[in-house]
Specification:
The protein is an alpha/beta fold. Helices cover about 40% and strands about 15% of the residues. It has 2 domains: about 15-255, 3-Layer(aba) Sandwich (Aspartate Aminotransferase, domain 2); about 255-375, Aspartate Aminotransferase, domain 1.
Length: about 375
């Protein structure tokens, strides 16, 4: 019988994850301190190479954070001001933020109610003569259906910039059986190493992936103030670097990424089984052509007062989060780009609830979480 109260259930348990690999992490940090190469040290280049090998991609460029990765990727395309870029309304703000900041127009697409991702059905009707790119977001850890998206982009001569900030390690299977990692299918992929990510550092960090040699060279220059040769500025760039300390930490954690993904899937399967017979809870739908790395485990509530459920769970010290309570096309900052009514995104924002999901969840904790949810829902 589960206890009435299980203490220390975390939305993300980074401390216990660290404790398991503490000697390796501490040694990596100490090596950087002793080298004093805090910026562009050898550990950064080692990590970029190791991550490229893991992803089976030619180029990995470490940058300051996931938002910078998206911005630099878009800057590298050389698009004219006012270019339209299609991206989902149901996602974190960074994706649309960088589009607008660069003087482009974010065009918000609705998402699929099962995958939470944009599809060719939601994208195609938004394409105009001004459309230049598509930015699919692999939300919560599962790839968007990329094969038809890539085919659509090719037909309209559009760039595809993948936002893989929540999906590193997820694998997509094409109709011919070919498998590719998330972020490595379009022209450029972007990820975040924010601490709570599946592969997270102990501060801010991000990376850009591409097989395109020309874009890779340009993005490295853009991330370094537009400078290739010292004090010679060939283009207007930014200052965005993944520091050596964070790269050293990530290099250790990269070895455990597949293990972390497996642990998250075990927790997800427990949730799935617990909620399988509850008609008021819709569990995450698995795509037939993508693995899921469960950055978040997000349920949809049906006929349930979500706010009241959150309050009741909080009383039991069970944390939950709403990703995302207001879709981007309804946010004040994006009124100028509002466009059409997006019913799925708007409905999801009212019904989704993300449960604790991390590598350290124990069965007793999962039992406590699910029991309390089901007791209240029923």
């Amino acid at each position: 019988m589960v206890n009435d109260k299980i203490v220390n259930i975390e939305m993300v348990d980074l401390k216990n994850q660290y404790n398991k690999i503490k000697p390796e992490i501490d040694a990596a940090i100490q090596q950087v301190i002793e080298s004093s190469a805090f910026i562009k040290g050898q550990k950064l280049f080692d990590f970029e190479q190791n991550l490229a090998q893991y992803l089976s991609v030619k180029h990995v460029i470490g940058v300051g954070n996931g938002t910078d990765a998206l911005q630099i990727a878009l800057m590298s395309l050389g698009l004219e001001q006012g270019s339209e870029i299609i991206t989902p309304a149901f996602t974190f703000v960074a994706t649309a933020e960088v589009i607008a900041l660069l003087g482009f127009k974010p065009v918000f697409a609705d998402v699929d109610k099962d995958s939470f991702c944009i599809t060719t059905q939601t994208i195609e009707k938004l394409i105009t003569p001004q459309t230049r790119a598509i930015v699919p977001v692999h939300l919560f850890g599962q790839n968007a259906d990329m094969e038809p998206i890539l085919q659509l982009a090719k037909a309209h001569n559009l760039y595809v910039i993948e936002d893989a900030c929540q999906s590193i390690g997820a694998e997509y299977t094409f109709s011919d059986g070919k498998k590719m990692r998330s972020g490595c299918m379009g022209d450029v992929g972007c990820t975040s190493f924010f601490p709570s990510k599946n592969l997270g550092c102990y501060g801010d960090g991000g990376a850009i992936f591409t097989d395109n040699d020309k874009l890779a060279a340009k993005m490295r220059i853009l991330a370094n103030h537009g400078m290739e040769q010292r004090y010679h500025y060939d283009m207007i760039g930014v200052n965005s670097r993944l520091d050596t300390m964070q790269a050293a930490i990530l290099n250790v954690k990269l070895k455990y990424l597949d293990e972390y993904i497996a642990a998250r899937n075990i927790a997800a399967e427990y949730y799935d089984k617990a909620f399988s017979d509850c008609e008021k809870i819709k569990i995450p739908v698995r795509s037939k052509n993508s693995s899921h790395v469960f950055h978040q485990y997000t349920i949809q509530l049906q006929g349930i007062n979500r706010d009241e459920l959150q309050k009741q769970l909080a009383k039991k010290s069970i944390p939950t989060m709403i990703y995302y309570p207001i879709p981007l096309h309804l946010q004040k900052a994006y009124e100028a780009y509002r466009g059409e009514h997006l019913p799925v995104s708007e409905q999801l924002s009212k019904t989704v609830l993300s449960l604790p999901m991390h590598t350290e969840l124990e069965e007793e904790q999962l039992e406590f979480i699910t029991k309390n949810i089901l007791d209240w829902v029923r």
